[in-house]
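2024-03-11 09:14:02 INFO worker-7 job=invfold-0412 stage=load source=structure_tokens
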């Protein structure tokens, strides 16, 4: 009898232990569904309210364009995102602009991802807490923190693939918990098949959907690991398998470099990992499961067929031209960006972890600048408080409480976070010279982190709220926190009135003459132009200027007309006559062919030689002759050997200019830091510089640039303080200010002070760091005899640099040269009080007063300096001033 009782007790304990390690149905299905849908609706409505009406900077313009024209975006392509986006565009195409539809599409995906954050959070909490309120509250808090975190929200209001990525990752986590809840011994395999299908369908939106695959695998097999963890055989097999997989990757990665298969190591890694997985689990799954798995993976990957098929049709955006197997493989494996290996770190791992991952982490919650403007508390104190006590403190407490109550749940969740954070940092291998912030790569980790923030909040209530009043207060506080986070971030995510990116693109296009070729530098001066050309944007405006200083021949007109016919078929926006040539893409043969075949650009290098273009080293100065259609279009440029060499894109630019100059207008965007040797042959007309045959520095076409900045360009949203401009937008807006500055300088050099001041003041409206122009403004106002304004800017500068001798000296020079010696004297005397007088200061006073003929003022200032610093010898200067005065008086006497 005793034996039977012991057996029953042991059996009961096993059942209890099992149920503690699987999700429980603490919240009834109906309630859970209603709350989940409520979370979805609230977040989706906010995303709709803050979504962009038109395109944004970076990749969103390209994605919105590709959705409209069924284009092929940059590698690796995101085909399922483009197909789904096109479906949404077909349904809602009449209702709004293309970019608005795309942002709504992202908002829908993100809101669904937030809903599944709630659902999987409830599942995890149910593994260690059986209180219905705690489950619901924890799920809602996690969902709200995720929905309105910085990067997640940003991805939800523009055409961006990371919203779709978040949806697939979160639904996969939820499905995995469903399977763990229902499975006894690897049954319910249909759910596993669905999870595998979702992984690879998500791969067609973004390849990092596989980032949590190892964690999901661990969640599925954790029970077996736990049962075998004390077995030496288990650890032996696990150690040997890991060593073989890593060694295989290391060896074949090196072999791949030798045999021109750079990704061989990755292939071997996948094969060895799959083999180890099969050998470990083949007894649990029969051949039919394996066959279905392979079939579902292939079906899930079928959207990639779109890439090859559509590339063959040569759409307007066709990056990589992956129309055959070789180019398609290069495209999907992102070889355009170079081959990387985990073994070759692009920066130290510590740098990658701190500068990229944790720095971006600090942006995610409770915008300190906004809260500071509300409370007048310094932003750094607010940032420190919320990051330390709320973001970090609550999460750490949540981790601790979860670990204490259910290690099984904690280990599973920790692996999800680890794979999306530390492992992701290792895999992405970001460099120390990224062209932009890459916070979106880690948005999954920030999403997972919110669970611990939420549970830390609930755990405080569960563990310390012993009476109803305290509990009510704590609940109110923890609910108020994510609401405060949302409120603090609302303005910086509100794109509903933002037109900066669209105007930026259309202003580039509208600067150009008809049929122009423009060389652009990066994403932000290329994608907005593509979008404006390809998409029928209701907010876009067109301005066309006829061609001048060109003589197109018949071949050129034929090429232009052929390109126009192609554009009319594939593009639906403004300025379809313009050819946009991106400098980065000019390093690739397929892009040169695209410009030649579809954009009407002459490029007289045979096809067989295009694939053999290589960078060229310069051992001496190079001279390149540009022989236009007639002598007035011919000139020569010098490329100094100090440049070091010519990249493929430089050779392509040289060839395009050689073959097209004098036949079509050719321009460089002002954002191009390197004009491939044509720097001295440029004339500025605003946002672009035109290539001309004559040479000179800092030249402008006054009539054209004035017409552009005053009449042609759109500046919507720039002067609307309710529209938030991030650092990137602010930096690009400065380019408008630079155009006004060029006009101002032109008039200043011609002593037209009123016009110089007018355009300088306009420039200040666009320039973010205005203080760097304080002294320029002071000079111009002094020249215009507007003395008080001049003094105001000098004083502003001196507040910034109260002990800077150059500032005092420049102020003195401005007023002495402008015929205001008393003001100039004042600044020299102020300089003596702030900075110890010395011989150099005496020499400065002597030269300044002597050249302006202010002998009395010079003597007075030198004597004042002597009083402050007796060791300074001022006698030679006084003697020379006396001689100069006498000579001047003698000269006047002779005239009389």
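2024-03-11 09:14:09 INFO worker-7 stage=emit residues=896
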């Amino acid at each position: 009898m005793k034996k039977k009782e012991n057996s029953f007790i042991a059996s009961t304990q096993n059942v209890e232990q099992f149920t503690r390690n699987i999700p429980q149905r603490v919240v009834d299905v109906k309630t859970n569904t209603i709350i989940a849908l409520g979370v979805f609706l609230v977040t989706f409505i906010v995303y709709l309210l803050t979504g962009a009406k038109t395109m944004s900077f970076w990749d969103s313009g390209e994605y919105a364009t590709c959705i409209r024209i069924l284009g092929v975006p940059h590698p690796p392509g995101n085909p399922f995102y483009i197909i789904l986006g096109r479906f949404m565009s077909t349904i809602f195409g009449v209702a709004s602009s293309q970019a608005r539809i795309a942002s709504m599409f992202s908002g829908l995906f993100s809101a669904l991802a937030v809903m599944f954050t709630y659902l999987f959070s409830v599942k995890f909490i149910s593994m260690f807490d059986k209180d219905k309120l705690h489950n619901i509250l924890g799920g809602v808090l996690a969902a709200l923190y995720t929905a309105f975190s910085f990067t997640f929200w940003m991805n939800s209001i523009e055409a961006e693939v990371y919203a779709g990525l978040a949806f697939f990752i979160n639904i996969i986590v939820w499905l995995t918990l469903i399977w763990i809840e229902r499975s006894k011994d690897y049954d319910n395999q249909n759910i596993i098949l669905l999870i595998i299908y979702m992984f690879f369908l998500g791969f067609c939106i973004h390849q990092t959907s596989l980032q949590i695959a190892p964690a999901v695998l661990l969640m599925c097999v954790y029970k077996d690991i736990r049962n075998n963890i004390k077995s030496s055989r288990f650890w032996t097999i696990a150690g040997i398998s890991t060593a073989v997989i890593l060694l295989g990757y290391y060896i074949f990665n090196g072999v791949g470099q030798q045999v021109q298969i750079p990704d061989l190591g990755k292939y071997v890694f996948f094969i060895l990992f799959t083999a180890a997985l099969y050998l470990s689990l083949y007894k649990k799954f029969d051949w039919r499961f394996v066959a279905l798995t392979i079939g579902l993976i292939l079906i899930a990957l079928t959207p990639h067929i779109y890439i090859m098929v559509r590339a063959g049709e040569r759409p307007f955006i066709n990056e990589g031209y992956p129309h055959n197997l070789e180019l398609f493989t290069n495209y999907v494996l992102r070889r355009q960006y170079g081959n990387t290996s985990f073994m070759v770190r692009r920066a130290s791992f510590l740098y990658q972890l701190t500068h990229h991952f944790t720095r971006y982490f600090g942006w995610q919650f409770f915008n300190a600048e906004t809260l500071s403007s509300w409370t007048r508390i310094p932003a750094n104190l607010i940032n420190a408080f919320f990051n330390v006590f709320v973001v970090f403190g609550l999460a750490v407490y949540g981790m601790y409480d979860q670990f204490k109550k259910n290690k099984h749940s904690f280990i599973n969740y920790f692996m999800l976070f680890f794979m999306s954070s530390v492992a992701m940092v290792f895999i992405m291998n970001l460099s120390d010279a990224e062209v932009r912030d890459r916070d979106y790569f880690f948005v999954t980790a920030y999403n997972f982190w919110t669970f611990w923030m939420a549970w830390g909040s609930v755990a405080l209530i569960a563990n310390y709220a012993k009476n109803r009043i305290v509990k009510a207060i704590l609940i109110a506080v923890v609910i108020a926190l994510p609401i405060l986070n949302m409120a603090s971030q609302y303005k910086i995510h509100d794109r509903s009135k933002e037109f900066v990116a669209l105007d930026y693109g259309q202003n580039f296009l509208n600067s150009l003459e008809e049929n122009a070729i423009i060389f652009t530098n990066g994403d932000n001066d290329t994608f907005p132009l593509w979008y404006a050309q390809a998409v029928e944007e209701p907010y876009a405006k067109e301005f066309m200027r006829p061609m001048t200083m060109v003589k197109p021949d018949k071949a050129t007109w034929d090429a232009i007309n052929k390109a126009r016919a192609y554009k009319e078929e594939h593009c639906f926006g403004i300025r379809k006559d313009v050819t946009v040539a991106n400098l980065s893409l000019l390093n690739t043969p397929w892009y040169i062919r695209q410009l030649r075949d579809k954009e009407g650009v002459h490029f007289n290098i045979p096809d067989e030689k295009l694939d053999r273009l290589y960078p060229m080293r310069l051992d001496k100065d190079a001279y390149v002759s540009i022989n236009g259609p007639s002598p007035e279009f011919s000139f020569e440029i010098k490329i100094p050997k100090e440049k070091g060499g010519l990249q493929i894109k430089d050779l392509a630019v040289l060839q395009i200019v050689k073959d097209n100059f004098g036949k079509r207008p050719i321009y460089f965007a002002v954002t191009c830091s390197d004009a491939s040797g044509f720097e001295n042959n440029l004339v500025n007309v605003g946002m672009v510089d035109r290539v001309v045959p004559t040479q000179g520095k800092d030249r402008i076409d006054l009539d054209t640039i004035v017409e552009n900045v005053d009449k042609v360009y759109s500046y919507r949203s720039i002067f609307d303080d309710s529209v938030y401009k991030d650092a990137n937008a602010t930096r690009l807006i400065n380019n408008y200010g630079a155009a006004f500055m060029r006009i101002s300088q032109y008039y200043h050099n011609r002593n037209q002070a009123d016009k110089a001041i007018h355009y300088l003041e306009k420039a200040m409206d666009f320039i973010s760091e205005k203080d760097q122009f304080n002294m320029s403004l002071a000079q111009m106002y002094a020249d215009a005899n507007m003395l008080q304004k001049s003094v105001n800017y000098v004083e502003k500068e001196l507040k910034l640099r109260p002990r800077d001798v150059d500032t005092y000296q420049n102020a003195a020079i401005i007023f002495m040269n402008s015929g205001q010696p008393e003001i100039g004297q004042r600044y020299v005397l102020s300089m003596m009080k702030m900075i110890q007088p010395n011989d150099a200061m005496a020499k400065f006073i002597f030269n300044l007063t002597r050249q302006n003929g202010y002998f009395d003022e010079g003597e007075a200032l030198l004597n004042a300096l002597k009083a402050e610093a007796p060791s300074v010898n001022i006698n030679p200067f006084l003697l020379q001033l006396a001689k100069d005065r006498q000579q001047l008086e003698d000269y006047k006497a002779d005239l009389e």
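2024-03-11 09:14:09 INFO worker-7 stage=report msg="The longest helix spans residues 98-125."
2024-03-11 09:14:10 INFO worker-7 job finished
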